[in-house]
Amino acid sequence: MLDNSIFPEGRSGGQIDPYSVQIIVGHHLNSIRSLISMVGIVIKRPELFHRFFRVVRLGGWGYALSLTARKLGLARSPCDKPQAYALSASQKEKLQREKFRTVPFYLDPSPSTDFPLTPKKVAVHLHLYYDDMTEMCIQYLRHVPQEFDLFVSVPGKRNAKNYQSRLKQGIPRVNQVVVENVPNQGRDIAPFIIQFGTRLATYDYIAHFHTKKSPHVTHFDGWFNSLMNLLCGSENGIRQILHLLEEDARVIYPAGNKGALWDATGWLENRDIARSFLFAHNLFDVDEFPFAEFPQGSMFWAKAECLKQFLSLPLSYHDFPKEPIPADATLAHALERLVLMFTTTSTGRNYRLEAPELSCESLEYYEEQNDYSSTRVHHDIKILADYQPCFFSSEKTGKNGWDAVRSATPLFEGHYQQHIPHDDLGYYDQSAGQTLLEKQAEMMRKSGVHGIIFPLDWRQGSPVFEQPMECLRTAPQITLAYCFCWTGGLDQNDLPGARHLIDYLIPFFKDPRYLKVDHRPMVLIGDSDTHRAVKSCETLWRQECQSHEIHPPFWVGRLNSTGDLPADSGFDAFVEPILLDEIGKEIPPINQNLYPYWPLKASVFDYGEVADHYAGQSHESPLLCFRSLVPAWDNMARPQEESDALLHRANPEKMQQWLSRLIEDTEARLPPDHRFIVVNGWNEWGHGAHLEPDIKFGYGYLNAIGRALCDYPYDGFDYIRPVPDLHLEFILAPGVSQRLQSEFLTRKYFLHGLAQFCLTQGFQLTIHNFQIAAELRALGIVCNGRIGREVDFVIEFSEPVIFPPDSLVALVKMGLRHRGFHISATPCNDPDFVHEETTPNFSIGYWQRGALNLRPPGTWRGSKVCPQAIYFKVSPSLRSNHQKLEKVATIVRFHHGADPDILMRSLYSLLAQADCKVQPWLALQDLMDEEMDSLQHKLDGMPWPDECRPMIRRYASSLDTPDVRSLMLNDTMKAIGKGYVAFLDYDDILFSHAYRTLLARLENVDKNATFGRVFSTTVDSDTGLILNREKKYTLGQTYQDYLQLNHAPLHSFMLNLDLIDLTRIHYFDDMKFLEDYYLTLQIFSAEKTDWSSLQDSIFIGDYIHRRGDKKHTLALSDSKQRNHLLEQKEYRLCEERVVALRQRISDALPPASVS
């Protein structure tokens, strides 16, 4: 056993446990090369020594060494994803499904059964660290519905007998109470195993609770109550938990805290500690679990048999450090993550209890409400939404619709249940009355919902749910249009009943807010029986309306029938039916692709497929057809029937696409005063179809309607106009300030981007860095913000970066588009960074944020990446400011019609080159005057050193030579004439160490060219997401390899023109393809070129393939496109020229040199 006293302090000034030390020694210091590299960097930059020990004080030695290895690139090779990135969502789901067998579950607050208790031995372990929480624990334990034994661990030397007496008296159904003093080591998990594990293992069911506080993380306040309300909040809830244990539950635990900033794997820094511990005790291999599902907060109920091995682990208190300990990365934190892993050899499943404040439901599509009322362009479109009054209690039925909603639980993996209303409305009832309708009406006004449709179920002479309708009628100040959908309750030929009903409706018809078509009050008919009743009373109603000087009703059919209604149906119009019980005839269900938790009778369909199906329908009926749609559909909150249908993966983005197509169709078919679209529904919570906000989507569906009515794209934000007095606070990490002070060019570029942003936007600014603020003030920029004005956004720099001013504008706009989220800019030149291809709505994990981030000062709902907000990392300089920097001329070709913004990205990657100066030579083909002016404006906005301002050479094509890229390449190189030259296609990127790496080779070898490697990188042209980096171009390493196959993309090498005779280089002006290979075949040779540099395989940039973009690049990654290109006549001509040149070179080589 190692003596804890010899180990340095951890994150909070405490000690590190022996298993952590083994990891530090065995994992972080396993490479002499790593140590030498770290020491070498510190010698060159001694300020890093102090920074390293500052990190030690904050996070402990293990954390500091791990972070240092990552920062210096010693932990992995370029483009090997960090562990946090490496686990995909599908991998995580598979582990939860097959290993942990995790079932998300909602306890029913109003169950239909009493869940009778069975005679089982039950024990509870309570770790009572905080004495002031004792009474709170007693109140929770009073809810345990059957007799149980209580084992209590109390750290230190507190009086155990006093606790025993107090607990025994306060808890009615407790049998024996055992209170024992324990060392203050290992938090709650150590006494659970060491002190009581053997005894607890003899019970049938056990629970583990402790007085949870997290003083180091303020957003965990209230976590204890959230956990205990689920585990021990009511007798009814515990009965359901015990019932699950009786069935197939292994462990039952609460969902994790939404504010927990875990990495994708759930391990954080604990995996290697767990590996060392498990290996030492000859237990299972931790690599079987790349993802750790665990009870966050380490509180749970369990079947003791499933945790018997965990409870008998051979531990002692000496294995754990004394308090205070780090907030993470200790043996206790590792053991917490092993709880469920020890159950995987047992039968049964683990249940994760969900709750609004703890739910693991993703928030990718969550939105706060925006106001679109003043920017609508589709003014004639009237969106109507079905309004369900069943969420108001009915005296006739005695039921409340919320009961079914709150009893729902997920039935299969990925199933969105429960639907929980947003706090802005909550589980409302009739007590909300007029106030509720005012809130709802304001939500509709902002989003563009024109009115609502009340169902009219007429029973015993009055509506079943009358209160909300009467409340609206008697509140004229609520400017909300409405109408009725008559759904039954009147028999055919019941004229007295019909007269009574029309007498009830007349006051509503007279209301100016009641919807009218051609001055006729609109009434929808919801079923065939009601349709027959209408026909029998139509004459009576017409007479009654006439007697009140009201036009007769405008009848709208809403029948669940296939096909359009005939002209003689008696209706004036009909609503397009969404026949989900018939959709299986058109679209196959996806049940076979689902992983069910419970028996599933309903047919499940993909929402996107259903939306596309109905959006593409055409209606040529002689009757008016009002199109309709659903935001979702899921009636699994109600008893299932075989005919039920459920729409899976519904989201606001797809609904907006559906609605936009309906708007287009409606405007094309119907006259302006008949353009209605019906959404089912406004608050159909029992069927999961609600525009009203919930805790998962927020106001996403309402905003989707607003955007569709304004013609705003779902995933865009260019339409957003930030208010001029927006208050931004800029925060620079300490390391950023130090580097800006020591690196002149980095500071120049950084300040330029910041200053240009500030000058053009006019926001209120607060910058706490005195030096940066002073330099901005010298440019006339006020940096102290407005006194008393709260900060709207905080912009943080964790590294010094170069960025276009538009990047900060994009960050702000996306922050306004996705309020409450952290927005991370995209690093264009970071080889370790890629987006997840399946990223929904630009969402990323907290751990995937970059060096430039925007966040709101308060709420955190998640993190998103902004592809339009780009930045470029700058490698730390290895030279002092007084050392001369070499100059590199870089040739970039650009043509008419190409995207100048893509060009700017390439040029910014040149600005970011470390320890050298780069002068772009832009060869421009056929640019129009306006294109030239725009490009010049963009170039002038970049912070070029005076001696490195871009050189511009303009070229014109001809009918005979429509593409002069070969001319531009060769002519520009000859114009440069001497020195170091490199090349960069306008749509590719170089990493910041690229030229420093290549220059270091050329400065030390007498060679005319040297090489790096480049990734084959895929970028989505629509979203800008960097999807993939592959090491494709790594085959060749010798001159002979190069003669056989061009393995060196144009920007992967650098030339020294001083060692090249440019007069001997020949080229063809019209050579559109392979022109770079033709050039380098004349330059590279076996002796004069640095082929050994290829053996290092240092990656210096991206060779970018833009997926979905056929206009701006010749880089082809699609095999069909490539094969088509190879068949073109002009390509074959270029290839013949290359073959002829290679033959001449081979003929001139000595026989031994030709492979």
Automatic annotation (TrEMBL):
Q: Which Pfam families match?
A: Glyco_tran_WbsX (PF14307), RgpF (PF05045)
Top-level lineage group: Bacteria
Full protein name: Rhamnan synthesis protein F
What organism does the record attribute this protein to? Ferrovum myxofaciens
